[in-house]
Amino acid sequence: MIETVHPRVIVKVPASTANLGPGFDTLGMALSLYAWIEMSASEKTEITLYGSGMSGIPTDKSNLIYKVAQQVFQEVGVSIPELRIGMYSDIPLTRGLGSSASAIVGALAAANHLTGSKLSQDRLLQIATKLEGHPDNVGASLMGGIIVSAWDGERAEAIRLEPHPDLEVLVAIPDFQLSTDKARHALPESYTKQDAVYNVGRSSLLVAALASGELGMIRHAMKDRLHQPYRASLIPGMEQILAEATEYGALGAALSGAGPTMLALVDRRSRRKQELEQFLLTSLQHQHSGAEARWLVPCLEGPVITVPDSSEDDITLMEWIKGDITAC
Prior knowledge:
The protein is an alpha+beta fold. The protein has two domains: 9-162 and 299-320, Ribosomal Protein S5, domain 2, CATH 3.30.230.10; 167-296, Alpha-Beta Plaits. It has helices at 64-76, 99-114, 121-132, 136-143, 180-185, 193-212, 218-221, 228-231, 238-244, 273-285, 317-321, and strands at residues 9-18, 27-41, 46-50, 83-89, 146-151, 156-161, 167-174, 252-255, 262-267, 291-296, 304-306. Strands 1, 2, 3, 4, 5, 6 and 11 form a seven-stranded mixed sheet that branches. Helix 2 runs antiparallel to helix 3 (121-132), helix 2 (99-114) packs across helix 4 (136-143) and helix 3 (121-132) packs antiparallel against helix 4 (136-143). The longest helix has 20 residues, at 193-212.
């Protein structure tokens, strides 16, 4: 039996960046780049993926969005075995900008709203973390802003920080993909005590800088010894960006998530934005890789849910969101 409160929901969910340098698997930030998911009960499952870059994503019941939705339905005791799902995303896949996390969070939010919002935000965070394997990306996409999180394998905890109003984010997105598995395999099995203590200190300093608005301290805090040194060989130009970005006006620089996207935090009042952008692109292109630069801001909210009324049933997802789309 199909039990549903809303016949159709559309969810807009932000991208995210994780780690911010030293906060490996713990720090995340929502970004002003988005994915949209529509979901409704149907007589037959139909999954439509809009836009380029979606090749290889299943359009049957093995699709991640479908499976996540069914997990919500099972938890709340509702049966909706057949769904109509649509998705469009401005978030490039496997580039370190939380594309899978946004799909998980969007699916959770849509399915939860479809059945009357029976699950709390905390419960959605727990489900999302177990699906993703860590809470940084999903926490940021779910809660917006900056997320400081922890997970012990059983339960995730997260605190949201409000980003400083002058904080901007420049991302340089290389034209090649890098799987999270490959980036994970580049890491060592163990670390020295010195490196562990180093990262605890830098991560703590970064959280304090972000929470207090001490933007000038970020350049000292966004340093890492746990993952970036080991992943640098996978991303030509990365070492130069990490070492020199602050000389070109960045507050600090980091590998975004598992990469290959490189990220720089910037004071929006800076007069060196064009210089910094050119440095990032040149550093990547100099190593025989093309890249695209995007200026973003921290996204302050998580999923935004819209419920079209019956008079709007004929409006397609792409017609609904066309004013918001930024990607070609």
